[in-house]
Amino acid sequence: MIQNLVIVESPAKAKTIEKFLGKEFVVKSSFGHIRDLSKKNLGIDIEKGFKPEYIVNDDKKKVVDDLRKSVAESETVWLASDEDREGEAIAWHLSEVLKLDKKKIKRIVFHEITKDAIQNAIKNPRGIDYNLVNAQQARRILDRLVGFELSPILWKKVKPALSAGRVQSVAVRLLVEREREVFAFSSSSFFKVVALFKGDTEIKAELSEKLLTLKEALDFIENCKTAIFTVSDVSKKPSKKTPAPPFTTSTLQQEASRKLNFSVSQTMTIAQKLYEAGHITYMRTDSVNLSDTAIDAAKKTIIEEFGEKYHNPRRFKTKSKGAQEAHEAIRPTYFDKQKITGSTGEQRLYDLIWKRTIASQMSDAQLEKTTVTINISTSTYKFIASGEVILFDGFLRVYLESTDDDSDESGKDLLPPMKAGQILTPKEITANERFTQRPPRYTEASLVKKLEELGIGRPSTYAPTISTIITRGYVLKEDREGIIRKYISILLKSGKITKEEKTEITGAEKAKLFPSDIGIVVNDFLVEYFKNILNYNFTATVEKDFDEIAEGKIEWAKMIEQFYRPFHKDVEKTLLESDYSKGERVLGTDPKTGKSVTVRIGRFGPIAQIGENDTEKNVKAQYASLLKGQLIETITLEEALSLFNLPRNLGLYEEKEVVIGIGRFGPYVRHASKFFSLKKEDNPITINLPRAIEIIEEGRKKEREKVIRVFEEESSLQLLNGRWGAYINYKGDNYKLPKGSDPQKLNYSDCIKIVNEQKPTNKKKKVSGKTKR
DNA sequence: CAGTGAGCGAGCTTCCGCTTGACTT
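ok -> structure tokens follow
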């Protein structure tokens, strides 16, 4: 007989809590939600007041059975899921599914996993908050209605297997609109003037005004030839810097992206490992709060490591919309552990978390900013030199938060002492043409930041949302090469002016999110017919209603009713009235044939088309796929026409034709009826024969290396080289090698053993009820 | 698989949030 059974959401949490409680407590985990709306159909009976049909998923049956056994043996069941909407619902689902006797259950909550917090919680049990549960049901039902009514419209009107939802569709919209801002942006140029003055240390000063034209710049520089430069003012201002709050999920994702180049999902996987190893607190949180225990422990470490002067305890307030604050901020569990053992990724992420948390409890940095104004005798403009001295480093000693834009130039130098009236001699003055910046494309992390600002999505869904919009093909995560841009540079040195044209690379992108054609078409369709759902404030608006449900002010079914009736009318209207949406655009006419050139989404992606099919006259349209990076919205007539130069015959190699084309898997070179894919950097329109031969040879080499060994004993058993290293192929099935085995040393019986012991890895298996995102 | 298809029709796809493995050619 168990006296007390405690149920929490996470097994790692269960392990920790068990240590804090006495022997009379057994702690188990529900592994998150234990049941959900049926997936076979809508799972909601609309006519019966939106009655939900809940089902215990197959992969949760074991968990539920196990809990059921424990419950049968226990006197009291403590439902200790998180103190937020979802957590309350989990507690309720548990009580329903496990058919818990109301007298037997106690609902407890804590925001931090500390001994005090947990013992305190045990002393203050309450009942299940049904209002909060209903708010969760409303949230769940609304999301299901939106997702399961919108997606099928897309299957009919755009393409099968597409999806739409309250969160993902808005995420895509953000990307599409940003991309359009990028298209629409026209950059203008100006001249930035910088002077270097002689001195013990060189003084760098920037002109107070941007000069807009070349003539202005030339005139100004000309005037500088004879000018006298006098220091007119030296002003010193104290300033300070304050540390950033401890990490939440989204800020951790952002900083790990900026400082460590981790993707959002990489960060979460590594954080999960750190959490399971007991190194950090829970990694899915929207709270910046630290427990008293943590604040004390940080204090101790800071004073020991850096001294009293560096310590300044702080409490931070969460600002983000819709935060539910069921957990602490993400912090090290033990501050005295400055380093941990584990993979490099784990060590680096832990280091980041350690530093960020410690810095948040440290003193402000004290700075002194100096601004020197320099008069120019021949102009009303002034040069400004600015410098910064750190008087006391404070938290900067361990950590400084990064920013998204990397254009952090000048102004941070140390300046030599100067005083008003002092005359400065220029070493050189340059006027470089600069360009206004287009808006930046989103990275995974900056998209998460934006979604959080809008109150859309939750810490547990940021990473899955990004992978959903990528796997649906709405969005591509890509690097793009920059283009070469010319700019004018004017230099005044030793009394002589030189003007030259220089070049720079601009617009290169690394791991940025780009909307695809299908993403754009789907977005435009949804924005046209479902403005309300696609509105950036939609989530915020319904969240207000959910809050009112949680407070018991309104009834959940009424709220859903009010949302659903007009929404469903729109659904029916759209199904009836909207056209099939292919995103077609007419580019113009083909000068060769006089036929019209159009681009649209075809069965296998975006295509260009010349003319129409006419079966009576036996006229066939010509088709060509768009290249990677080309969009229906922006492709020009010329670019589209050049696609029709494919397939292109480049000539002969080994007496066989070398042909370039574009297929299902992108650009290829065909030779002797074999296909090899072109590399990312190759352009099929411009590629030449020598390069094509290189690709053919490379492909042949890979093919030769593919087979490591075929066994004489049985020809159907092969050792092959794949994308992830060596593997075994036996009668068409693949088997992975045990870790650390050397493929060169495996003999026939080793391989047979592996085949018999392992399940094949390439079996297409239908995982019932499991969401693959 | 290296094309953008015929005609008919059955059967399938999908949401968000809470969790962790299982698994990847």
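Residues 763-773 of chain A have pLDDT under 50 and may be disordered.
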